[in-house]
Predict the 3D structure of the following.
Amino acid sequence: MSESIHKVAIVSFTDQGVAIAQKLQKEFYRSNVFTTRDTVFFGEVTHVEKIGEVIETSFQQYNVWIFVGALGICVRSIAPFIKNKNTDPAVINVDDQGKFVQAVLSGHVGKANEITKQISRILTATPVISTSSDLQELWALDLLGSTYGWQMRSSVPLNTIISLFVNRKKTALILKVKNKGTEFLEKTLPNFVDVYYTEQGWDMHAYKLVIYVGYQVLQTGIPTISYYPPCLAMGTGCAKDIEPSLFIEGIKQALKEHGIAIESLYAFGSASIKEKEQAYLDFSAHYGIPFVTFSGEELNTIEVPNPSEVVKKKVGVYGVSEASAALISGQESWIVEKTKAVTVSGKKFTYALSLSNRYERRSAIAIVGAGSGDPELLTIKGQYLLEQADCILYAGSLVPEALTHMAKEGALVRNSAAMTLEEQIAIIDQYYSQGKLIVRLHSGDPSIYGAIQEQMTIFDEKGYDYYIVPGISSFQAAAAYLKSEFTIPEVAQTIILTRGEGNTPMPEHEKIADMAKLRATMCIFLSAGIAKKVQAQLLEYYPDNTPLAVLYRVSWEDEAVWTGTLGELTAIIKENKLTRTVLIVVGEAIGARKNRSWLYDEKWHHIFRKKEKKIVK
């Protein structure tokens, strides 16, 4: 939290309060401490005779005020300067024994509630928060927009909306688009909220409140709060020297006719010959919407649904508005195809609208790292995707089957160990064409020997939407098991992740013997079957007594680990008949405990830990 706070003022009135203030100052490094006490203290502390004078001159200059003392003093001190909950700074009060932390002012917009929880963790104190939505762990509707960059529009006063919501009235949530914000809403859905993905198919008479996230203007007849992400791209063409005010009014009217909120526009564009068209420049300035232009060559890369021979003859392209919208949005589809309009002066213009590909609700493939084996080492995002997926393909030879128990009822779960790549793609094709969520579950972290490159090549060719969710690699689980830091000051500052040369050749410049010259911490995968060869290559540069660990299925229920020296590597592999899922780690960092980092040395000062100045007053 402290990273996002620009200025913090901490006020204390007692000696105990000064001690707490100085503790908080170390956490909120962009902070100043003010006190009325005559005492000995350290750090950036300012002694003042009257706190009221500081508040009068500086109340709006700080994002956060933290009072350490009686709540009454805090309230009386700030009362004359409170103006508006949307502009007032956050105010928090801590008693001078550090037992209770209370949000006093600007709980939501100023983030006082959030900071209160943070301070309570620092002091192991009890947080006191009185905001109903926070107490019920409900969405803060007044903050959703600013949190995710959405503009907000409410059909009734916002307080009425919030009252209905915190009193848990039956609510319809309509999600027309998809991004991190809508994913958050889906994951944290209260039990009195029903979610829909279209404006149709729900009975408005069954609800007291509607929450909408999309680009359309909803007319429901019941209290509605709408959030408009910047998700629509507009392309436009116009007659030369079209009147700016008439063009702006024409676009406003056009959007109104289509039921589209102008708040959802994030950019608009046209042909490069229009880059100085005053109507476009004025529209951009009036609404703060970026204006971009494209060359004829760029516009002609788009196959528009409504080509015009007339435009082709005049401008050299078959369409300006549709092509511009497609280029801005990143996809060749339109929620409004080219539409012609005429201003009251008789000048013509066209427009088209496309939904940004970043907001489209469509099928997706998540390549998820399953972690090293222990289901509890799966990332939270990975767990969420497994719970939501319609299809899960997992590498059963390397991923515990228990992870797939998170799948929802009705989901397809298949072990890909015996499948060819083509068989896997056939299943993915089937579910992708249905707009489903597909999870491809790989062991460890997908970027390390995950065999995902060949899949992504096919996804790219097919134009599929996919993304990668990292996982905990077995080398990280190995470090945890060995209670080792693989980068030790003045011992080893490099980790090498590699494998030995078996049936699959190694690149000429990546031979193990060459990498061994560095004497770094080396983690060697997929090499149990060629352990003797690997050992010989390592011994060219590592001493025979270099610490060694051999880990079999580390973090699985049947994990086994052997430690020794590099000279014992072949014997460990042979005596324990190890073949697959073995990781070999070699290096002086294994089990090292001697060297100390400068990071936390008292003589080492930096932006987070400034050199303390002793001040006597």
Observations:
- The mean pLDDT is 90.
- The first strand starts at residue 8 and ends at 12.
